[in-house]
Design a protein that fits this description.
8-stranded mixed β-sheet, alpha/beta, 9 helices, 8 strands
Length: 258
């Protein structure tokens, strides 16, 4: 399994000469590569040959595909969760499709993890084989009570097995962080499972949301991509303080990256 190389808990894309085709048509160049990655991964998953190592490899291929078309990526704060002995709950803002492709190669070589995903992702043609192989926690996004039950029961089961959980509390992808739509489902899971939460701030607008197909928007290499991991926190009481600290961490990072 190939891995990203971190220096002092950070990674930054090296300057690269971009090919003329990639420079002229970054969206087409990227999606051709991403589709190939997904089809190969789905084929392995369908044949029960797609584990954590293969997932990390596919994710790293996706990151390299982004760099190939000129997208620069900066990752900081890796040591904040690498130092943890057990699993944790990663709580992140959600901006685009990019993070679902790239987060596995950042997190899972260090802490095997899975996502909380909406049901449509495990029914998506081709992609469903890949997604199901990762044993995600599935929510319907129609009944908050049912979703909470699914996350608590499924999350505790996976955390007890030593797998971390990645949660996007916002109900939809957005470039703006609205605290009112940033729910506490991740806090509740960490509290019940007695594991730390790790705040994750990200800025991934380089992969736009499409007008007709949300997953396939314009690729804009001029927008630098950022991921930042904050200090882990154990939940005290009802978790209101930790919830506010996560929102503050993400808000401050988004302001810093403007």
């Amino acid at each position: 399994m190939d891995k990203l190389v971190f220096s002092n808990g950070s990674y930054e894309s090296a300057p690269e000469k971009i090919s003329l085709p990639a420079k002229a048509a970054p969206s087409l160049s990227l999606y051709c590569r991403i589709i190939d990655i997904v089809f190969r991964a789905a084929s392995k998953a369908k044949n029960k040959k797609y584990g954590n190592a293969e997932w990390c490899d596919s994710s790293l291929e996706s990151l390299r595909a982004l760099e190939y078309v000129g997208v620069r990526i900066k990752i900081t704060g890796i040591d904040n969760f690498r130092k943890l002995e057990g699993p944790c709950v990663f709580i992140s803002n959600h901006m685009s499709t990019l993070e679902t492709f790239v987060l596995p190669t950042i997190i899972s070589p260090l802490k095997e993890a899975t996502f909380v995903v909406k049901k449509s992702l495990i029914d998506y043609p081709v992609f469903k084989h890949l997604m199901r192989s990762r044993d995600p926690i599935v929510v319907g996004r129609t009944n908050p009570r049912d979703d909470l039950k699914a996350v608590l029961e499924g999350g505790i089961e996976r955390l007890k097995a030593g797998r971390s959980v990645i949660i996007f509390p916002q109900t939809t992808r957005t470039a703006v962080l609205d605290p009112k739509t940033f729910n506490t489902i991740g806090i509740k899971l960490a509290q019940r499972a007695n594991v730390p939460v790790v705040p994750v701030a990200l800025k991934t607008g380089a992969w736009g949301n499409g007008k007709y197909l949300k997953d396939f928007g314009k690729i804009d290499p001029a927008q630098k991509v950022y991921f930042a991991f904050g200090e882990p926190m154990l939940i005290q009481g009802r978790g209101a303080e930790e919830h506010n600290k996560i929102i503050e961490f993400i808000s401050n990072k988004l302001k810093e990256w403007r």
